């Protein structure tokens, strides 16, 4: 997985981002000021920087201008004006996320940028399961398992957000789409089929009064 620098001066937000990135398999370093972010970026090799604009010592725009060439950056900031967003993107940032944000949205944006740079693992393995995320093919002990398009979509959402507890409503939004008008019980039925087909009874865990999590731990 990727090595990511989180440059954010609010400790609670920095720690929240770090804990969720680590849950899905990334390693992280934390910086709380602009100069600290630059020092880390120059002393370690990172695949991505999550960069706040309003950093003490040196703001995020100035930090971005001094980062190593080719290092992808996503600005994560409370600055909402169009001019700020255009400035950030004009400096070559891959994306610009406004606070407050949903963690799952942040993780999805991170995945897109890493995939674009070829830094995202496109094969997922767990026990005897192997999922080719580019070809949309699933293998159990090297024998291909046919899944319906909806079953595969749900599996990919669980993999992308592994170790995170996802509500039925969130799974519906992510795997079925925001315009889906069916009941959340369809999630339960699809979960049961994935558990059985892929022998994931102990890995796809029920989260009481919430939904499900794919545990890789």
Essential attributes:
Sig_transdc_resp-reg_receiver, Arc Repressor Mutant, subunit A, Rossmann fold, alpha/beta, 2 domains, 4-stranded antiparallel sheet, transcription, single chain, phosphoprotein, 41% helix, WH-like_DNA-bd_sf, 8 helices, 5-stranded parallel sheet
Question: In terms of topology, how is this protein built?
Answer:
Elements: E1 3-7, H1 11-23, E2 27-31, H2 34-43, E3 48-51, H3 60-66, E4 73-77, H4 82-90, E5 95-98, H5 103-116, E6 123-126, E7 129-132, E8 137-140, E9 143-144, H6 149-160, E10 166-167, H7 168-176, H8 185-198, E11 204-207, E12 211-214
Parallel strand pairs: 1-2, 1-3, 3-4, 4-5
Antiparallel strand pairs: 6-7, 7-8, 8-9, 10-12, 11-12
Helix pairs in contact: 2-3, 6-7, 6-8
Q: Tell me the number of structural domains.
A: 2
Per CATH, the class of the largest domain reads: Alpha Beta
Computed over alpha carbons, the radius of gyration is 19 Å
Assign the CATH architecture of the largest domain. 3-Layer(aba) Sandwich
Structural class category: alpha/beta
Order of helices and strands: EHEHEHEHEHEEEEHEHHEE
Helix content: 40-55%
Report the β-strand fraction as a percent range: 15-25%
Number of E-state strands = 12
With strands numbered from the N-terminus, the spatial order across the biggest sheet is 2-1-3-4-5
CATH topology of the largest domain: Rossmann fold
What would you give as the CATH superfamily of the largest domain?
Response regulator
Largest sheet: 5 strands, parallel
Tally the helices: 8
How far apart lie the N and C ends? Answer: 16 Å
Mean pLDDT: 92
**Unreliably modeled segments:** none
**What overall form do the CA principal axes indicate?**
elongated
